[in-house]
Amino acid sequence: MSENTCILCVGLLCLDIVSECEQFPKEDDKVGTTTLPNRCVSQKWQRGGNASNTSTVLALLGDTPTLACTLANSPEKQFLVTDMAKYGIKEDGVVYHDGVACPSSVVICSLASGSRTIIHSNQNLPELSVEDFKSLPLHTFSWVHFEGRNLSNVLMMQQMLRRAYPSAKISSELEKVRPDMDLLTLNSDVIFVSKDYARHLGYEDMKTAAQDIAQKAATGRCRTVIVPWGEDGASGYSEEEGLVSCEASVPQGGVVETLAAGDTFIGAALHALSRGKSLKTTLEFSCRVAGLKVGLKGYEAFGEALRKCAWVKEL
């Protein structure tokens, strides 16, 4: 493995309240630790948010990620900041705000199916501003990854970054359905398109989505499009390699938890791409890392498993 890479992730940091149930509750159910036929097996606080999760994966793979986000000066702050430090994520880009609530997600994980259902709330925390972004030591980052949110500000951040540091690589995640998300292709070298967003655009398979979106995005700077498709694997398209696809990696013990699987895939892809790996190698590596993650609970077990994998070190 080559030396670690300094990557900036721009996006959301929030609190996840994760409840693990034997099965997904029915409407109007009351699920407790001793209720039948469905029980809540465990409940925990966990640091969440797409950019936050991606930063965790990068750190576990040996990179030096910095998370740029906003955070409330609320009771949840200490837990979140301490957890970032635990994984070696730099908090230089965290901007704190008084008098607002911390964004949170209620996550229900089903042991029966491995599914995760997320209900997110962000009441009044301001998004990262362009001035916040400008204050960062942008020259120190070889790669900047943007979560597809806060669109008007993010577009200005990308334009500014492209003018000031034209050699820096920029990637963007198009996950949730929001207006004008396609504008992120104008200054991004790489875009990640979620299955849900691709379906919103009318695509029913990952190969068609990757190839068609790449051809449309070629009018801007984007030259690589990657479309993760869950249990079907992932497809990508680049000018150099054309259309490339990879099957999903299925964990030996079956799927245990799918929470943050997409963020894990993106983190692994950024790790590979930032080292100059081909699209084919990137997809294979990312599917393998994501497959390892969904077979385990939480990032601690995932980190321990990564350290034992020779193929991670050999990338």
UniProtKB/TrEMBL annotation:
Pfam families: PfkB. Residues 7-298 form the Carbohydrate kinase PfkB domain. One of its GO terms (biological process) is phosphate-containing compound metabolic process. This is Ketohexokinase-like isoform X2. It comes from the Eukaryota. Keywords: Signal. Residues 1-21 form the signal peptide.
